[in-house]
Design goal:
This protein is α+β, with helices and mostly antiparallel strands and 414 residues long. The chain has 5 helices and 23 strands. It folds into 5 domains: 30 residues; 108 residues, Sandwich (Immunoglobulin-like); 93 residues, no CATH class; 89 residues, Immunoglobulin-like; 42 residues. The chain has a 6-stranded mixed beta sheet with strand order 4-3-7-8-1-13, with no helix packed on it. The protein is globular, with a radius of gyration of 28 Å. Belongs to the FAM187 family.
Length: 414
């Protein structure tokens, strides 16, 4: 590519970028801001990433600032951007325990929150540097800790709707995910979040249906929120089967080349997907993540030729599970054993994308480090046990002292 081609390509990219900005400005010109600030209700599951677009702003405002409040008019207001511009955050660098100020990004006037947590629930305002609000959201992040899994293949049915006077509590399901495997029996699921219907909701919150919001919305009075706590999110799972894409021709040509290059009778092993090697110590825990997968996507796991179906390996199916899949599509192995060695394949949206060759090393000299979560857990358990024994010791001696001073304790001698 010569210099003239490069100049033409840069000019075309600049024109497209300018067209995108002008188109965005035209949207703001056609959408006037409401005279009375309303809150759009939005519900998500924990560990999901979501985007809140700023649908309106005055033409004279060149940039927006996002604000956060836990409750309307209560507590301090947090500013989710600095006034000099927010540095973009990559979702792959965000951890679950990170603070909200680390897990957000602002792109083209929209607020992006990565791996949202239940404590991120609240009111989000799109406004100006001077504190004027243009658009607002009522965000409800529902925890996945108490999520109930329902398997259609076992004849199970979702929760029935609950009616408590004028209060109607029910589950709203999302669309079915694609089949998580191809060519073999797979699974697909849909996430259901808790919603309620009541005439006692605050009129300042915008609803998609009359008098219907998510259970954790700020439009719900506290007394109604307490009645809806026993209705957790749901996960509906069913079997499926889809054919794989036709890759036999390409694979046949590749194998022909390998057969020609390699010696006769010594055909090399072709994994088909990138393989990552990991060495794990015996009796230590391990968590494996599928590369590029999000919690709402269809993700499946295999160990060699064994399919790890959610019907048997979903978190919470059995309390004594040593190997399980959590609601964020991560594979957990507790107390690694020698028979855990093998290749763990990861499927994403019906296509096998990666593999992890796991090796288990026998016990050896273990270097103690306070950064190791198992070392911290052992120290915490030791400290809690010591505090309990100290509390029991002090309680017994205080009781004996009181008995000695007030002479009110019974005598156990004959």
């Amino acid at each position: 590519m010569n210099l003239s081609h490069i100049i033409v390509l840069l000019w075309a990219c600049g024109r497209l970028r300018a067209f995108e900005i002008v188109e965005k400005e035209n949207i703001f010109q056609r959408t006037p801001c409401p005279a009375f600030l309303m809150f759009d209700n939005a519900a998500y599951l924990a560990d999901m990433s979501f985007e809140l677009p700023c649908h309106c702003k005055p033409e004279e405002v060149p940039a927006v600032v996002w604000y956060y409040q836990e409750r309307l008019g209560g507590g301090r207001t947090r500013v989710l951007t600095d006034f000099d511009g927010q540095v973009l955050t990559a979702a792959s660098h965000v951890r679950v325990g990170s603070d909200l100020l680390v897990r957000f990004s602002i792109r083209m006037f929209s607020l992006l929150v990565f791996r949202a947590q239940p404590e991120d629930s609240g009111l989000y305002f799109c406004g100006s540097r001077s504190g004027d609000y243009f658009y607002a959201y009522d965000v409800d992040i529902q925890s996945s800790e108490g999520m109930v899994a329902t398997f259609r293949d076992l004849g199970q049915e979702p929760f029935a709707d609950a009616y408590r006077g004028s209060l109607h509590v029910f589950t709203t399901f999302w669309e079915w995910t694609p089949c998580d495997r191809c060519g073999v029996r797979g699974e697909q699921w849909r996430i259901g979040l808790c919603y309620l219907q009541s005439p006692d909701l605050s009129p300042r919150y915008r609803k998609t249906m009359p008098d219907v919001v998510s259970c954790g919305s700020r439009a719900v009075p506290r007394k109604l929120q307490a009645q809806a706590r026993d209705h957790p999110p749901e996960l509906l799972v069913q079997s499926c089967r889809v054919p794989c894409r036709n890759t036999t021709k390409v694979r046949g040509k590749l194998m022909a080349i390998l057969n020609y290059v390699s010696k006769v009778g010594k055909r090399p092993w072709l994994p088909g997907v990138p393989i990552q090697y990991h060495q794990q110590r015996l009796s230590h825990g391990l968590v494996i993540s599928c590369p590029g997968a999000r919690p709402e996507q269809a993700v499946a796991w295999d160990k060699d030729s064994q399919h790890l179906y959610r019907t048997q390996y979903l978190k919470g199916t059995n309390r004594s599970m040593r190997v399980f899949i959590d609601h964020g599509n991560h594979l957990h192995i507790r107390f690694t054993q020698l028979d855990d060695r093998g290749i763990y394949y990861c499927w994403r949206q019906g296509e096998r994308v990666a593999g992890f060759r796991l090796g288990v090393a026998p016990r050896g000299r273990y270097k103690v480090s306070f950064s190791d979560p198992e070392v911290r857990s052992a120290l915490e358990l030791t400290l809690v046990g010591f505090l309990l024994l100290t509390a029991v010791f002090i309680t017994v001696h205080l009781w004996r002292c009181c008995c000695y001073v007030f002479r009110c304790c019974p005598s156990f001698s004959r």
